[in-house]
């Protein structure tokens, strides 16, 4: 099917040979007028788009001092050039972060700097021509906003913010992307990215309850819209639909069950994802996040727990307070909001979970740090908790764990290749090529340490990897949810088929009995 | 894009999902399948029919897990697994089978 060459997996990361224009042909599908208008954007490219774009650009510069600093500060040192997975995988020089930024920077200089207004040829300033606009559309949709480049930039220039601003400008002149905008409209309409309505969601959850009971002999509930529950779980809707996401959802349910905490999913706010961040729209982000506030208030919950979704955790951790706060109605004794990993970790620490690590002995695991969790949020109360807590959970559930090379994990993690609103089929070539650095690291630990599976805590990462790993010789089932490992290891009270014989977790005794209401 | 078969023209989106799902027919399904390099067997039909029934009830395609469970019931354990479904629909049972079944493409992080 593929009519492009797969990038080679080498021993270590090395900059590719430059391939000018290699990805110039790849353009994501434009949003249809209906998708645009549902978000209040013009249906198609407006008349006088140039002036309107510059006007919007001016407005964004007024709102965001960081955007102006990022556009001013670059000294072209080149530190970012070989840090982007899309550049490493494609060799297209426009996928170097500095070049991607320059697409916007040259227009900034032309219109918003004195030198650029008078001597554009001297300072690399250029007009926003139709050709430049097309480059914006193509290459700002070849940035997954993962922010790896910004870690290496001595000025901390955040290409993600630049790409978000560019998409925001394009949306306002009627040049939006189908994938993101169609999905955001669906959230406004139905409550989740999938378009999963309440009856379908209820049916899915019931089916999962049956499956768990069949497997364990224990009735574990996945409650929907239950007023007065202690916790509202906000999970990415892929957790209700896709593999291996569903197995993670089963894991959350077992942890809540065993912790004795009452919980519920909301059919109104049945989505953790907030794609509005990808398109840089504060208004849209706000509207999407407000659904969660409303659901929490309507259900009367005391805590909000967020499922395994990378960018959702960035939005929740970093922006919910202003988007959907104040959360004065939630219990201040717990993190507001709380990541499901924090929840599980706390239970493990309390000794409330009985975990049989041998249930995961058929795997040797590694862990993929998701970009938005790694570089744009935190977990727990210590710096680096977002790296330590998922690994601590993994190690509590598995005997065999190996990290990938240090320059590919934690805050240096590589994007899966499908983040930032690029997880769409027409960009598959980019996604496959952009996964190359991660695949190289995975192959290294597979070859050297016998790693068989890679765990992730992001719906996009899981779907992206499941799709692209076969191209690199891995099985699609080698991608697992972190809470899937918890689900395998957890021994529920009264579980029929619990692993025979006393396990090493003898210190975890009656703690499991701490009952909820 | 359009599909043209037996003198009928059916509009689709950029990816070949028909835009008016009421225009779906079995002949059209065979035609789309051929376009996707799939020869429709009884097992393919079993999946497509289940997707259509589920969609009629819930206005969305079923989760892969739900599909697998249903196929396990109708075709047995050796066929009710994701490996077999991927053999039937190499581009993914959710997306490719939906296209043939005339249903909208599932969206989101999937």
Structure description:
The complex is a heterodimer of chains A (517) and B (110). By secondary structure, chain A is mainly α. Chain A has 2 domains: 33-176, Fumarate Reductase Iron-sulfur Protein, Chain B, domain 2, CATH 1.10.1060; 185-402 and 451-510, no CATH class. Chain A has helices at residues 33-38, 49-63, 65-73, 85-90, 97-112, 114-118, 130-139, 148-152, 159-172, 178-190, 198-216, 245-259, 282-299, 310-323, 340-350, 371-376, 385-397, 428-434, 436-449, 459-468, 482-489; strands spanning 231-234, 263-265, 303-306, 338-339, 365-367, 453-456, 479-481. In chain A, the strands form 2 sheets. A 4-stranded parallel sheet of chain A has the order 2-1-3-4. A 3-stranded parallel sheet of chain A has the order 5-6-7, with helices on both faces. In chain A, helix 20 (459-468) links the parallel strand 6 and strand 7. Chain A is globular, with a radius of gyration of 23 Å. Chain B is mainly alpha-helical and 110 residues long. Chain B has 2 domains: 2-35, no CATH class; 42-100, DsrC protein, C-terminal domain (Arc Repressor Mutant, subunit A), CATH 1.10.10.370. Chain B is 49% helix and 7% strand. Chain B has helices at residues 26-35, 42-58, 64-75, 82-88, 93-100, and strands spanning 2-5, 8-11. In chain B, a hairpin with a 2-residue loop joins strand 1 and strand 2 (8-11). Chain B is globular, with a radius of gyration of 13 Å. The relative contact order of chain B is 0.17. The model of chain B has no long low-confidence stretch (mean pLDDT 93). The A-B interface holds A 1, 29, 178-179, 182-183, 186, 192-197, 199-200, 203-204, 207-208, 211, 236-238, 240-243, 246, 273, 309, 423, 425-426, 459-460, 462-463, 467 and B 14-15, 57-60, 63-66, 69, 82, 91-92, 94-95, 106-110.
């Amino acid at each position: 099917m593929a009519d492009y060459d797969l990038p080679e997996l080498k021993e270590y990361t090395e900059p590719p040979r430059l391939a000018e224009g290699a990805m110039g042909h790849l353009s994501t599908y434009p949003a249809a007028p209906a998708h645009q208008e549902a978000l209040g954007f013009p249906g198609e490219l407006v008349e006088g788009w140039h002036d309107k774009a510059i006007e919007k650009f001016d407005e964004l510069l007024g709102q965001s001092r960081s955007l102006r600093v990022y556009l001013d500060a670059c000294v072209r040192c080149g530190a970012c050039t070989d840090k982007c997975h899309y550049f490493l995988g494609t060799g297209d020089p426009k996928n170097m972060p500095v070049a991607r930024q320059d697409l916007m920077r040259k227009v900034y200089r032309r219109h918003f700097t004195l030198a650029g207004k008078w001597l554009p040829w001297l300072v690399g300033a250029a007009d926003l021509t139709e050709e430049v606009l097309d480059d914006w559309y193509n290459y700002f949709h070849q940035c997954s906003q993962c922010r790896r480049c910004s870690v290496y930039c001595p000025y901390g220039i955040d290409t993600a913010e630049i790409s978000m601003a560019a998409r925001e400008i394009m949306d306002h002149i009627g040049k939006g992307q189908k994938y993101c905008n169609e999905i955001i409209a669906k959230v406004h309409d139905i409550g989740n990215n999938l378009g999963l309505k309440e009856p379908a969601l209820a049916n899915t959850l019931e089916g999962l309850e049956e499956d768990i009971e069949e497997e364990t002999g224990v009735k574990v509930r996945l409650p929907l819209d239950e007023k007065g529950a202690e916790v509202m779980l906000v999970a990415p809707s892929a957790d209700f639909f896709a593999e291996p996401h569903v197995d993670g959802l089963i894991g959350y349910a077992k942890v809540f069950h065993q912790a004795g905490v009452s919980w519920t999913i909301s059919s109104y706010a049945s989505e953790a994802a907030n794609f509005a961040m990808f398109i840089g729209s504060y208004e849209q982000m706000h509207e999407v996040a407000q659904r969660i506030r409303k659901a929490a208030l309507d259900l009367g919950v005391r805590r909000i727990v967020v499922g395994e979704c990378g960018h959702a955790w960035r939005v929740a951790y970093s922006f919910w307070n202003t988007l959907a706060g104040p959360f004065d109605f939630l219990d201040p004794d717990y993190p507001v909001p709380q990541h499901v990993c924090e929840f599980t970790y706390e239970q493990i620490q309390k000794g409330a979970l009985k975990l049989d690590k041998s249930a995961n002995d058929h795997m040797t695991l590694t862990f993929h740090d998701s970009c938005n969790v790694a570089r744009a949020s935190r977990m727990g109360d210590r710096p680096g908790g977002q790296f330590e807590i998922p690994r601590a959970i993994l190690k509590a559930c598995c005997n065999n764990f190996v990290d990938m090379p240090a320059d590919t994990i934690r805050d240096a993690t590589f994007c899966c290749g499908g983040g930032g609103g690029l997880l769409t089929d027409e960009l598959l070539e980019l996604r496959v090529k952009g996964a190359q650095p991660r695949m190289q690291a995975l192959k290294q630990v597979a070859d050297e340490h016998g790693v068989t599976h890679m765990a992730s805590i992001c719906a996009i990462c899981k779907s992206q990897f499941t799709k692209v790993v076969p191209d690199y010789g891995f099985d699609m089932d080698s991608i697992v949810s972190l809470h899937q490992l918890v689900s395998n290891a957890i021994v529920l009270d009264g579980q029929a088929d619990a692993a025979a014989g006393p396990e090493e977790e003898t210190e975890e005794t009656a703690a499991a009995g701490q009952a909820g209401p | 894009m359009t599909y043209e078969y037996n003198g009928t023209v059916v509009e689709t989106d950029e990816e070949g999902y028909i835009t008016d799902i009421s225009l779906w027919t079995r002949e059209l399904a065979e035609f789309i399948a051929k376009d996707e390099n799939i020869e429709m067997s009884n097992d393919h039909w079993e999946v497509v029919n289940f997707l259509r029934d589920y969609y009629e009830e819930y206005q969305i395609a079923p989760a892969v897990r739900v599909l697998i469970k249903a196929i396990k019931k109708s075709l047995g354990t050796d066929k009710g697994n994701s490996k077999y479904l991927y053999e039937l629909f190499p581009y993914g049972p959710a997306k490719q089978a939906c296209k043939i079944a005339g249903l909208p493409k599932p969206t989101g992080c999937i």
